[in-house]
Amino acid sequence: MELVASLGIGVLAGSGVWLLLRPRTFQVIIGLSLLSYAVNLFIFSTGGLRSGAAAILEPGEAGSIAQYTDPLPQALVLTAIVISFATTALLLVVLLAARGLTGTDHVDGRERDR
Amino acid sequence: MYDTLLLLALLGLPFAGAIAAGLLPTRARNVASALAGAVALAGLSLVWAAYPIVSAGGVLRADFAWMPMLGLHFVLRLDGFAWLFAGVVTGIGALVVLYARYYMSSDDPVPRFFAFLLAFMGAMMGVVVSGNLLQLAFFWELTSLFSFLLIGYWHHTAAARDGARMALTITASGGLALFAGVLVLGHITGSYDLEVVLAAGDRIRAHPLYLPALVLILLGALTKSAQFPFHFWLPHAMAAPTPVSAYLHSATLVKAGIFLMARLWPAMAGTEAWFLIVGTAGLVTLLVGAYVAIFQHDLKGLLAYSTISHLGLITLLLGLNSKLALVAAVFHVLNHAAFKASLFMAAGIIDHETGTRDIRRLSGLNRPMPFTARLALVAAAAMAGVPLLNGFISKEMFFAEALSAEAPLPGLLNLLPLAALLASAFSVTYSLRFIHGAFFGPDPVDLPRQPHEPATWMRFPVEILVLACIMVGLLPAATVGPFLDVAVRAVLGPEVPYYSLTVWHGFNLPLLMSVVALAGGVALYRLLQRRLRSGAEGPPLLRRLQGQRIFERTMVFLSWRLARRLEGFLGTRRLQPQLRLIVAVAILAGAGAAWLRGVGPGNLPASPVDPVLALLWMVGGICAIGAAWQAKYHRLAAVILVGGVGLIVCVTFVWFSAPDLALTQLTVEVVTTVLLLLGLRWLPKRFQTPGERGPEVLTRTRRLRDLALAVAAGGGLAALSYAVMTRTPPDLLARDFLARAYTEGGGTNVVNVILVDFRGFDTLGEIFVVAAVALATYALLRRFRPAPDSVELPEQQRDQQETDTLQPERGESGRVADWLMVPFVLTRLVFPVMLLVAVFLLLRGHDLPGGGFSAGMVVAIAIIMLYMIGGTDWTEDRLRLRPHLWIGTGLLLATGTGLAAWAFGHPFLTSYFAYLDLPFIGKVPAASALLFDIGVFILVVGATLLMLVALAHQSVRGHRATPRPPPAPVARERTPVTAAGED
């Protein structure tokens, strides 16, 4: 299972990095999305991958790590998801504005000199 | 209490006065100078009020906890030594203020001058009364800063700007070194408290870090006190108004270095290294300064170099590692302050009344300004060490020390008396030059102004100082004796050696040296007459030794050539190389760490592979690679594929027991996709023309390189994740959070409790970020101008309208634009259900998966669905959305919940919880964290809507910008507008 998850993370990260290095703004934005999936999964995995572990405490009981999942990476990733949504939105708007101003969707605001 | 008040007033008054003076109108010269004078005199009387305590050997101390957990205290401490300097700072300060009142022209913004001067006084006072070394370093830098402002006061002249910049660069860099040195010292002693450090002298000297600490601290002290080779900033600082020179460059700022060396003398002196560094720097400065001073043509330049030389003398005395020498050094600090301040003021008077300071142009001023001439004569005689004046006594002490010094290098020691003699002779020569050049000789010709005596009050400070020179010279023990004793006892402790403050010690070697120096100086002056009259610039032999030129070359190199070269070498304005560099560095850093520490599978056995998840991830991988493949030409496909990846990620979260994450991921996924779809409309069309020539070789190489980087990054991250996942995860924090979530946070959903309670402050920061992003999005889009090729209606919409126009017989309900009728009705039905789901998620968030984020996203999705299906106009006619209001309310509610904890005397964001029994609903967790979560919810709704709606509105604006097509025959009051996502 760990192998599948880590391979998945790898593929996501690789695709994301590839797109990140492309010249079109849209490619970069998609790349960032993919990369943030990969990184979120990675952070999440630092708590250990356990299927079927309880995520919600029994009322009145102090939980222990033996029965419950690690809540800390989850809280971190939850924050990261929201922030990456915000950055994606901002980047999208910036790229639209840049495209409107410069007339090109190249990341540098002008086409590469040939 | 008395101590605290007195010390606070002593330190605070100048700063308060500075602020008050800064607020005065530009022309308020008299008010500003009266204010500054009052502050200085008040300071002086406070210093005097402290004398009874200090003279009895007591120490005034005020201690304020600053960061007590780190052992940092704000300590004000006034012992005898600090008291003496505080007296100099306030006393000379008062005289300088009086002088400046007459010196400064009413055309200058005088209040600003006094504001800087007072602020400098405060900073200097801070250095003097600091009882904590870090605090001392802080005030030290503050003095550099205010001296920069004062030197650059006439900022319209290039000389002032350059001088100010040079002084700041040198002294502030020295200050940074001092700061580092203080840190090392604190590391050695374990405390920054001055008293602890002073008591730990033996430990410091024996510590292996002693030498670095010493070098760093001395770098600070020597730059500040203009010691060779850092001396060159002082002559350039003469571009300052003369009161500044009289204050900063004779009595206070340059003495700060001396102060520091004497202050730390018990802790750091007494070693060979101290003798070599301090002694050598002092000796070289003493000689070079005195020698160069002779050949200056500018009165202030002469005084500046003579100051350098005298500072060298004091430094040399401190470097001799002898207690008697320390006494002589402190004594000479006082004497030098008195005669040099009065000489600067005299030079200023000459400049003020004649319009020039060039000795070659001045002569015979004795006749038009006899009083000033006599005052200057006495002061210069004191500087030259003429008997019966104060300079003579400290010079005698210096000779005695030079003769009896004990130190490791006998060769240097034999040179010492000779060097002392030579420097004394030089000082006689330049003093003579100052007096003879300016006041004697034929009547001056061709001066810019007709010279005459200055205003009586302008001369008054000079008179006071000269009187002090004479009184100390005649009756040293009766006048300055007690004060000197108090200061020296504070540094040396009880074992102060016997020293005698009398004019006459009998016929001895020092007296003989004095006589020889006087005679030699006069003879040298006569010998040099021809050269000095020739008016040649710069001293012989040392003309090429110009620290200034080296400084400027260094500055040009650092700030211009090196920077340019580095920029040319490393910099780029293109994004791709930058990103490539970042990725490459990240890979290298990861690979380097793996190389050094090794990486491999951990201790846990891998769990069996579930075929379902493997299949899912196969799809996920294909989606990711497909998105990477298609993002250039098929953007819609890429968006869909990324959505697929998001769903797989979401399922993975569920799979591995993270329902909250899955919920948030799902809702965020929907909103992100809608956003991207809305954006697609404004991107340029890009078609892959079949049969197109393949990419050039260069492009292909680039792509290969990027592919290699991507594979390396992906492979690296995969390996890293595998290594992480097969290790037992650390559970320190997890255990803590799990144990306390219910008992202290009152919730069973630990993730939510962490977000809204344990780490609520992080969440608060995060929602502020989200709000800021939403507003930024909105602001950017308000000024949005689409590219010309995106303005016209998309093809699909044109087709729709055309069809509707061509087939009017289909009627209103049959319009192509309304083909989404069924989803439209469904959406309207589902809308309230979605809102209910959102409330459900919100309320149960503390105990079960849900919470403010996902609930807010659900509401936003519900509304954006209305937009997508019903169109912007239809929705906005029915729903009055005010996203800004939502954002503001959310932020206020969340912050207010945090603030409310203060009202109950708890720290910010402390949460309170209880379970309430509501009728019908049952037991509801009523933690204050829920209120916080509601704030998050409201904000997320507002922020998400603001982004989405702002983007969606662009379509409407875009349509409105184009000339409208002729009105369709179908009667309808609103243009049908579909969301851009359909395009």
From TrEMBL, chain A:
<protein>
    <submittedName>
        <fullName>Na+/H+ antiporter subunit C</fullName>
    </submittedName>
</protein>
<dbReference type="InterPro" id="IPR039428">
    <property type="entry name" value="NUOK/Mnh_C1-like"/>
</dbReference>
<feature type="transmembrane region" description="Helical">
    <location>
        <begin position="75"/>
        <end position="98"/>
    </location>
</feature>
<dbReference type="Pfam" id="PF00420">
    <property type="entry name" value="Oxidored_q2"/>
</dbReference>
<dbReference type="GO" id="GO:0005886">
    <property type="term" value="C:plasma membrane"/>
</dbReference>
<keyword id="KW-0812">Transmembrane</keyword>
<keyword id="KW-1003">Cell membrane</keyword>
<dbReference type="InterPro" id="IPR050601">
    <property type="entry name" value="CPA3_antiporter_subunitC"/>
</dbReference>
<feature type="transmembrane region" description="Helical">
    <location>
        <begin position="6"/>
        <end position="21"/>
    </location>
</feature>
<keyword id="KW-1133">Transmembrane helix</keyword>
<comment type="similarity">
    <text>Belongs to the CPA3 antiporters (TC 2.A.63) subunit C family.</text>
</comment>
<feature type="transmembrane region" description="Helical">
    <location>
        <begin position="28"/>
        <end position="49"/>
    </location>
</feature>
<keyword id="KW-0472">Membrane</keyword>
From TrEMBL, chain B:
<dbReference type="InterPro" id="IPR050616">
    <property type="entry name" value="CPA3_Na-H_Antiporter_A"/>
</dbReference>
<dbReference type="InterPro" id="IPR046806">
    <property type="entry name" value="MrpA_C/MbhE"/>
</dbReference>
<feature type="transmembrane region" description="Helical">
    <location>
        <begin position="819"/>
        <end position="841"/>
    </location>
</feature>
<dbReference type="Pfam" id="PF00361">
    <property type="entry name" value="Proton_antipo_M"/>
</dbReference>
<keyword id="KW-0050">Antiport</keyword>
<dbReference type="Pfam" id="PF20501">
    <property type="entry name" value="MbhE"/>
</dbReference>
<keyword id="KW-0812">Transmembrane</keyword>
<feature type="domain" description="NADH-Ubiquinone oxidoreductase (complex I) chain 5 N-terminal">
    <location>
        <begin position="66"/>
        <end position="114"/>
    </location>
</feature>
<keyword id="KW-1003">Cell membrane</keyword>
<feature type="transmembrane region" description="Helical">
    <location>
        <begin position="273"/>
        <end position="295"/>
    </location>
</feature>
<feature type="transmembrane region" description="Helical">
    <location>
        <begin position="612"/>
        <end position="629"/>
    </location>
</feature>
<feature type="transmembrane region" description="Helical">
    <location>
        <begin position="924"/>
        <end position="951"/>
    </location>
</feature>
<dbReference type="Pfam" id="PF13244">
    <property type="entry name" value="MbhD"/>
</dbReference>
<feature type="transmembrane region" description="Helical">
    <location>
        <begin position="113"/>
        <end position="131"/>
    </location>
</feature>
<feature type="domain" description="Na+/H+ antiporter MnhB subunit-related protein">
    <location>
        <begin position="825"/>
        <end position="945"/>
    </location>
</feature>
<feature type="transmembrane region" description="Helical">
    <location>
        <begin position="413"/>
        <end position="432"/>
    </location>
</feature>
<feature type="domain" description="NADH:quinone oxidoreductase/Mrp antiporter transmembrane">
    <location>
        <begin position="130"/>
        <end position="407"/>
    </location>
</feature>
<feature type="transmembrane region" description="Helical">
    <location>
        <begin position="884"/>
        <end position="904"/>
    </location>
</feature>
<feature type="domain" description="MrpA C-terminal/MbhD">
    <location>
        <begin position="622"/>
        <end position="685"/>
    </location>
</feature>
<dbReference type="Pfam" id="PF04039">
    <property type="entry name" value="MnhB"/>
</dbReference>
<feature type="transmembrane region" description="Helical">
    <location>
        <begin position="853"/>
        <end position="872"/>
    </location>
</feature>
<feature type="transmembrane region" description="Helical">
    <location>
        <begin position="763"/>
        <end position="781"/>
    </location>
</feature>
